[in-house]
Structure of S-adenosyl-L-methionine-dependent methyltransferase:
Amino acid sequence: MATPFVPKQALNFHGALLQELQGNVSDTIAQSLLRELPTLTSTSVVHDNGCSYGAVTLAILALDPPPVGAQVYATDVNPMFQAQLKAELAKISSPPVKVEVDTMDACNLSFPDAAFDLSITSFVFAGLADDVAAAKHILRTLKPGGTGVIGVWKSMPWHVALENAHIKTRGTDEPMAPFLSKSWYGKERIEQVTTEAGWEDVQYIDKAAWLNLGTDLERWARIAWTFLATPVGGWTQRDEDRWDEAISSISHELAQSDMHKFEDGIHKIRMVADIAVVRKK
């Protein structure tokens, strides 16, 4: 079998680059959100569902005061994310909260009923194969009186910049890169999904945060284009030939966005999340 073509400018994927791509925006949202949810105690059992590199888990560990003795289950289907979280946890001596990292599909959780006091699923639903099933599992695994949270992105200026670079370098007739086509997941869809899953009296809140793009916009654009813009059918020679044009387009659009600011030598883009919150009856 022939090795798939990859542009020479593309980067080799690893967890540190993923974290550079995501910046600290998910961490900021998680930290802010935890301040508004019921206070965690020593007996709390928490599910960080679709944990990625563990923004929610790490935010819990950073609480002041921490819920000493609480239990966090961090699950994801991607072993690279799990490895990244485990590496972060290894840096913490005597963590106040017990954390267990495991492989699990958010659409098919194997936890028993009524397992958690709090379940947070941050920025995962756009990529799920069965979002209704995932919402049902969240509700099923909550204890009566427990809190379930789903976060989706409402505003992602970087996403628009990548879509426009796709159109500019590949044309309007080529299907949008799969990740980009799946990333939009509006509040209307969350409302529909949670209703079908049996959630009642759902509350909605907005959370805004600044995505740190680093000191070099073109570097961030290169990471984003490498990992988020692989076209349907895979990369082609055209993508290598027009790579610089795509990176320049993304960088320029981000710099000109009303949601962009340059602060203390760092480029930042403002993102807004829609957060659905339910208290299980």
Q: What stands out?
A: The two ends are 54 Å apart (CA to CA). The chain has eleven helices and eight strands.
